[in-house]
Amino acid sequence: MNPRRAGALNERIDPRVTRTTRAFEEAVVELAARRSVSRISVAELAERPGGTRATFYNRYSSPLDLLIQVLQADLDRGHRRGAEARAQGGHSAAELLRPTTAEVADHVERYLPVYRHALADPADSGVYDALVRHSGDYTLSFMADGDHPGLPEANRRVVAQFLAHGFAGAIRTWLEDPAVTKDDLVDTAVACAPAWWTADAG
């Protein structure tokens, strides 16, 4: 086996690495819930058990990079549950849309202080941008997965960005307007979904 690959494998399964990674992840979420991630220093994160500045920079480029990885992983877990539900069958596309949308809303709610701080500070726009990017990537994946009657003959990347920015904008409204509830967000997203998203093939 290639020594570099062997070293990478050992690092992946080394429990010390796992503990340090988890410590960094917990620290950045805890701190980003208190203040903007742009105001979090690597030195603060390196204070956690097993952490050093060198260890941090071996894995991440910045506290923002670490935070986005944590948020992305949580979003991915939710989408995997949705993909598993689709694969099991027995539900129409329309029936699956609400729980899939609710998964994203639940994710934002789990990290509510983090997203609110990020939206309030222009220096933290990367958090919101990552949410848009994730939604766009998910939409592209959805369009490529199976037959969707009525899917327009248009540039799919443009379609994905159109929908991703719309959904992210709805999330922003929920976070910024106390009168808007999570149920309002989910209900509106489901009601505004394009017909081809909920159409079943054949």
Structural summary, described in words:
- With 202 residues, this protein is mostly helical.
- The protein has two domains: 3-62, no CATH class; 64-198, Tetracycline Repressor, domain 2 (Orthogonal Bundle), CATH 1.10.357.10.
- It has helices spanning 3-13, 15-32, 42-46, 53-59, 63-88, 93-110, 112-120, 125-144, 156-176, 182-192, 195-198.
- α5 (63-88) runs antiparallel to α6 and α9 (156-176) packs antiparallel against α10.
- The protein is globular.
- Mean pLDDT is 87; it is low at 1-10.
Please, what is the average pLDDT? 87
Q: What series of H and E elements makes up the topology? A: HHHHHHHHHHH
Compute the number of strand runs. 0
Q: Can you summarize the main beta sheet?
A: none
How far apart the termini lie comes to: 49 Å
Number of helices: 11
State the fourth-level CATH superfamily of the largest domain.
Tetracycline Repressor, domain 2
**Any low-confidence stretches, pLDDT <50, length ≥5?**
1-10
Q: What percent of the residues sit in helical stretches (DSSP H or I)? A: over 70%
Shape: globular
Keywords:
202 residues; mainly alpha; Tetracycline Repressor, domain 2; 2 domains; 11 helices; 74% helix; disordered N terminus
Please outline what is shown here.
With 202 residues, the chain is mainly α.
List the helices and strands and how they pair.
Layout: H1 3-13, H2 15-32, H3 42-46, H4 53-59, H5 63-88, H6 93-110, H7 112-120, H8 125-144, H9 156-176, H10 182-192, H11 195-198
Helix pairs in contact: 2-5, 5-6, 5-8, 6-10, 8-9, 9-10
